[in-house]
Amino acid sequence: MNQLGQLLLVVLAALTVENVFFSQGMGFYELLRGAKKGKNITAYAALLTLFSAGSGMITHGLAPFIPTEKRVWVFLLAAGVVLAWYLVVCLVLVMAFPHMYRRVNWCIGPAAINTVVFSIPFLAEQQQWSAWEVLGFSLGTGILFWLIVWVMTEHLPKFRNMSMPAAFRGIPAAFLFLGILALGFLGFVH
Amino acid sequence: MQITRGQIIRSVKKWARAFVDGLIFQNPVLIGGMGLYLVLCGSTSLEGALFLSLLLIVLTVPVCVICWLAGKWISVWLRLPLAFFLTSVLYLPWYPDLQRIHPQFMQALGLCGILAVADSLLLMRAFSPEKRPLPFVLAEALGGAVGFSVVLLTVSVLWRLLEELEQAGGGSFSRARVALGLIAVALLAALWKYGINRYKQKRGRGLL
């Protein structure tokens, strides 16, 4: 019960005050990519959660076996785990669920290897998280990722509106929108 | 087969055009939306931004060449892990030395100094089109890396100015680093696009 409460608290923190997107500026390319594609958003977010949680928890489990606590070793371990986890998930999907693999193969790489997934082991090491906290943070990050991509997908046609000055159409409007969203999220922090 | 002087000049012109495309018309940050994390978090100090720019330019060349060479033999789903493996392997031996030689840069960069290897700016080089000639792809990638550096250094200079203003205010700029950074990049992207549109209009009218 206590662990479940802790997990929910971390999910809430990852959704609001400590979210990696608006408080640290990570993963915007993946967000924009998901919004541009506009389909299979749930699968994209689920894969990001799976890769974050998997690589974070495996690195957390293996961390006591590395010789020193120096960051270079955490770097080595995290990079190895991210790569191995990506290959394992790809092989499982190809062998067991080929239909699903064909549906998600456009987003499987970007969902697995990005700054968000790679940051989880370092954040866990920095803040001395437990395995539950790693899981909760990954879950919260995945939910927020889905929410932002969904909002962006809905608004993307408006960013190309012809009544907008030509210079602001497209990417500049998307950046402005994200900047205003980030200002909104600042309300949770201060 | 003998290569004529005209052919060499034509090739150099093509590569220069690819470089300019990567730098201006296909700028990875302002047009492609890549590398935003490094721009938002790596711009906190001008020295850190300079270091990050150099690192990205240096890492882009081998990643681009190896991915282009490997692109003919390996399938698409393996290219991204290959690029990540390459960036990690190329950066890892330097990391302890950089921490020892330039501790202030690495401290200023923080987590950004490590996560640079997983940034979209480098990883998307994995999909360099193998059907195009290598010098062309390399020129475009280098142009992109220089384009990224221009944006990073501009945002960094802007932060330096805001920090000076902040000393007179209540410290609100550094609290909203990501939000203000995104708005600054948005305005820069709009300015960039305005310049490109003007250039295209003038070219269309035959004024250039």
Summarize the SSE layout with pairings.
The complex is a heterodimer of chains A (190) and B (208).
Chain A: H1 2-15, H2 28-37, H3 41-62, H4 71-96, H5 98-104, H6 108-112, H7 115-127, H8 131-159, H9 171-189
Chain B: H1 5-25, H2 36-41, H3 46-70, H4 76-91, H5 95-101, H6 103-109, H7 112-115, H8 120-123, H9 134-166, H10 172-175, H11 177-204
What this model shows, in words?
The complex is a heterodimer of chains A (about 190) and B (about 210). Chain A is mainly alpha-helical and about 190 residues long. Chain A has one domain (about 1-190). Chain A is built from nine helices and no strands. Chain A has helices spanning about 1-15, 30-35, 40-60, 70-95, 100-105, 110, 115-125, 130-160, 170-190. The model of chain A has no long low-confidence stretch (mean pLDDT about 90). Chain B starts with a helix and ends with a helix. With about 210 residues, chain B is an all-alpha fold. In chain B, helix 3 crosses helix 4 (about 75-90). Chain B has one domain. Chain B contains eleven helices and no strands. The interface between A and B is large, with 56 and 47 residues.
Short description:
Chain A is an all-alpha fold. Chain A has helices at residues 2-15, 28-37, 41-62, 71-96, 98-104, 108-112, 115-127, 131-159, 171-189. Chain A contains nine helices and no strands.
Features:
heterodimer; A: 190 residues; mainly alpha; 9 helices; 76% helix; 0% strand; globular; B: 208 residues; 11 helices
Order of helices and strands of chain A: HHHHHHHHH
Question: How far apart are the first and last residues' alpha carbons of chain A, in Å?
Answer: 30 Å
Mean pLDDT over all positions of chain B = 87
Q: What is the CA-atom radius of gyration of chain B, in angstroms?
A: 19 Å
How many individual domains of chain B? 1
Count of DSSP E strands of chain B?
0
